[in-house]
Sequence to fold (314 residues):
Amino acid sequence: MQKKRLLSGIKPTGSPHIGNYFGMMKQLVDMQGDYEVFAMVADYHALNTIQNADEMQKLTKEIVIDYLAVGLDPKKITLFKQSDITEHTELTWIFDNLVTVPFLQRAHAFKDAEAKGKEISVGVFNYPVLMAADILLYDTDVVPVGSDQKQHIEYTRDIAQKFNNVFEETFKLPTEKIIESVATVQGIDGRKMSKSYNNTIGIFDTDEEIKKKVMSIVTDSSGELPQNVYNIHKLFRNESELKPIYENLKGKYKDIKEKLAEDIINYFTPMKERREKFANNERLIKKVLKNGAKTASRIAKAKMDDVKTKIGVI
Ligand code: TYM
Fold:
């Protein structure tokens, strides 16, 4: 039986945090044997914020290494860079003529930016359309993501349906895969973990950084349980293991946090060690991206030929 196809992406905007890891990266690693996996570096999406060539180069290479370090095997999967496959932006333009301005105005990310009074670029406005192109070009079945991306996958289905209705049945409707227990990983202040809130614990942070961040997790001493600590701890141990630990150390927040820091460090140390082996291996990074682009390009080109035929430009 043919394997189902899975695609997801991450923006090269800095070192991944445990929200990125549990929400998306780990899912790709766990599923790479059973699915045909496409792991993308969403550099054109990152252009919203990374507008410096050296920085873009550096962050892109780093995210490739991060993908390998967490356990993605380039022999089993296709790891590629969005900008290497020009069909993504080409298809975006075609979709742009099918979606309306009010449709995009309803996007959460756009509404948030607007509410904050930000000056919004056309790229930010159009972000969901590029994301739809990323997914639909590959006839993707499943898109593993955190819950913040849910609306983008709904938009992707809407856009696919619109195209299929206006022209002919062309695009498969993808489904998001959101694991409830890690749909929104909390940050050290109890809000969603996010680089923009400055509340992250990086998976490749040094042991010292991890300890420092864990010690600064906001605790509410009025409750039975230091909920913010517990919520992060749940990612690393199951609740039946955690219960006795939290009962024994009841009220001893410093000791509990030390235990959490130790668990986080132990969990990520093997990945950190793997990362050190790959870091600075320019040849490996180039080779992985070249091979990835070859596979992705073959599929994207064939799909674009079909799309162009359907819309009547070839
Ligand atoms: P990005 O780079 O913001 O985040 C990468 C992935 O990490 C997940 N994530 C979280 N999951 C749980 N808890 C959190 N606190 C948390 N923070 C981040 C995100 O949900 C995401 O899955 N638009 C995408 C990149 C993208 C993409 C795609 C994804 C571009 N094209 C096509 C899937 C398919 C983004 O900005 O992810």
About this structure: The chain has two domains: 5-183+282-311, 195-276. The radius of gyration is 21 Å.
